[in-house]
């Protein structure tokens, strides 16, 4: 079907913060050909590809084209005795895709269950949770160059995945539309459970499960996430608003002498400290400020209590950045894409 472009469309239901801004032009893409039409129609104008809108904050109306990616399709490409290569078009829902991989005996993504959004946005910030990231499983990516409209293959090494980073989030931002993502996963013969992070082991033991299968792990992750993170359908949010900062060892030692209880994790570039702890320490956890505030169970998550504007949320996040900086001399970086 040809692309149908509408004017002045509210984006409220297309972003999980629930921000009510308008896009001056708007269309849903359901087939790969629609991407070519979209790039042609928006030529010379600003445009934005959106999947689930779960990692964006709109601070104003979007004066340009917003294209919602609903391009579906997934399958098995090849298998060996131990491994299986699967693919999905970028408009597939991430969590449904993860469940499908498990049903099809392709394991590895189970710790990434229940992350909102689309398959196509997942490599953008190298989504991660509960001890694994996309970069551990992504084989290659197909994308369309927005200028030449040619199909380009990004092998794993070309993506420059890092903590909540990839080339698509920085140097190539808005330069490519990701169309298809391939994953090399494990068959049962090669799979080992990854239960080291957080409460996974505890939840499994509470359920009396000693030798978990991938579905058990997926269920445990779903249970933990549902108990901590607000459901965007009930309370607008975009997950962690900030990244966990990695600080240099000297600053860490200074902070440790002042705040002996500061949690910390080793990192190849220094020491990682949980932003949630820093923000909670500064008194923001559960705070309500106008229509926005910090979630009562997870200080790293900023929420929209009712009809907050994106500007209001942005300014609240600025206040957090300033107070954390004054208290710990640490610069918090936003994880969410500000638009
Ligand atoms: P969108 O918000 O639609 O887009 C994000 C960015 O990617 C935009 O810049 C957009 O232009 C670009 N983009 C989208 N699709 C494409 C494409 N096909 N080609 C090129 N660019 C594209 N993230 C984690 O890493 N770990 C978590 O545990 C996690 N938990 C979350 C929990 C909650 C409750 C919420 C609301 C969010 C959470 N997130 C988490 C953040 C979010 O789910 C991920 O970043 C997700 O990958 C975003 O997908 P999306 O389709 O909604 O992206
Ligand atoms: N903490 C607090 N107070 C809080 C929240 C956290 O003190 O209010 C401290 C605790 O010490 C806790 C630690 O932070 O042990 C880690 O908390 P949690 O396990 O909840 O993880 P996180 O670091 O806050 C990260 C990701 C999440 C991901 C979880 C699980 C980032 C920015 N966030 O959160 O990803 O789901 O780990 O792996 O790395 C997202 O990116 O949107 C996201 C939700």
Describe the structure.
- With 339 residues, the chain is α+β, with helices and mostly antiparallel strands.
- The protein folds into three domains: 6-69, Uridine Diphospho-n-acetylenolpyruvylglucosamine Reductase, domain 2, CATH 3.30.43.10; 74-194, Uridine Diphospho-n-acetylenolpyruvylglucosamine Reductase, domain 3 (2-Layer Sandwich); 236-338, UDP-N-acetylenolpyruvoylglucosamine reductase, C-terminal domain (Uridine Diphospho-n-acetylenolpyruvylglucosamine Reductase, domain 1, Alpha-Beta Complex).
- Helices cover 23% and strands 27% of the residues.
- The chain is globular.
- Flavin-adenine dinucleotide binds at residues 16, 48-56, 69, 90, 115-118, 120-122, 124-125, 127-129, 168, 177-178, 229, 232, 237-239, 337.
Mean pLDDT: 97
Shape by Cα distribution: globular
Total separate domains: 3
What small molecules accompany the polymer chains? flavin-adenine dinucleotide, uridine-diphosphate-2(N-acetylglucosaminyl) butyric acid
Main CATH class of the largest domain: Alpha Beta
Largest sheet, in brief, is: 5 strands, antiparallel
Q: What's the total count of β strands? A: 20
CATH topology term of the largest domain:
Uridine Diphospho-n-acetylenolpyruvylglucosamine Reductase, domain 3
Distance between the termini: 29 Å
Structural class: alpha+beta
Main sheet: which strands, in order across? 6-7-12-10-11
What share of the residues lie within helices?
10-25%
**What is the CATH-assigned architecture of the largest domain?**
2-Layer Sandwich
Q: Supply Rg.
A: 21 Å
């Amino acid at each position: 079907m040809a692309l149908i472009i509408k004017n002045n469309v509210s984006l409220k239901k297309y972003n999980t913060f629930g921000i009510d801004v308008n896009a001056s032009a708007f269309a849903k893409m359901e087939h790969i050909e629609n991407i070519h039409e979209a790039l042609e129609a928006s030529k010379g104008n600003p445009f934005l590809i959106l999947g689930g809108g779960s990692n964006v904050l709109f601070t104003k109306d979007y004066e340009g084209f917003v294209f919602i990616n609903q391009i579906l399709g997934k399958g098995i490409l090849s298998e060996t005795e131990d491994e299986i290569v699967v693919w999905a078009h970028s408009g597939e829902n991430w969590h449904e895709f993860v469940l499908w991989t498990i049903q099809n005996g392709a394991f590895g993504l189970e710790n990434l269950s229940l992350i909102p959004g689309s398959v196509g946005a997942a490599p953008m910030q190298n989504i991660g949770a509960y001890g694994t990231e996309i970069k551990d499983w992504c084989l290659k990516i197909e994308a369309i160059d927005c200028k030449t409209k040619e199909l380009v293959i990004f092998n794993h090494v070309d993506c420059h995945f890092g903590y909540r980073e990839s080339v698509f989030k920085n140097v190539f931002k808005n330069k490519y539309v990701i169309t298809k993502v391939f994953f090399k996963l494990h068959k049962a013969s090669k799979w080992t459970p990854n239960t080291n992070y957080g409460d996974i082991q505890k939840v499994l033991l509470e359920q009396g499960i000693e030798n978990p299968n991938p579905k058990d792990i997926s269920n445990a992750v779903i249970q933990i996430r549902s108990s901590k993170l607000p459901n965007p359908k009930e309370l607008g949010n975009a997950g962690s608003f900030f990244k966990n900062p990695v600080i240099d060892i000297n600053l860490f030692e200074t902070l440790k002498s002042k705040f002996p209880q500061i949690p910390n994790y080793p990192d190849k570039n220094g020491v990682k400290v949980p932003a949630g702890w820093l923000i909670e320490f500064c008194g923001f956890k559960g705070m309500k400020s106008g229509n926005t505030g910090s979630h009562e169970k997870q200080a790293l998550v900023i929420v929209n209590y009712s009809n907050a504007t994106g500007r209001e949320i942005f300014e609240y996040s600025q206040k957090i950045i300033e107070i954390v900086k004054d208290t710990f001399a640490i610069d918090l970086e936003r994880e969410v894409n500000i638009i």
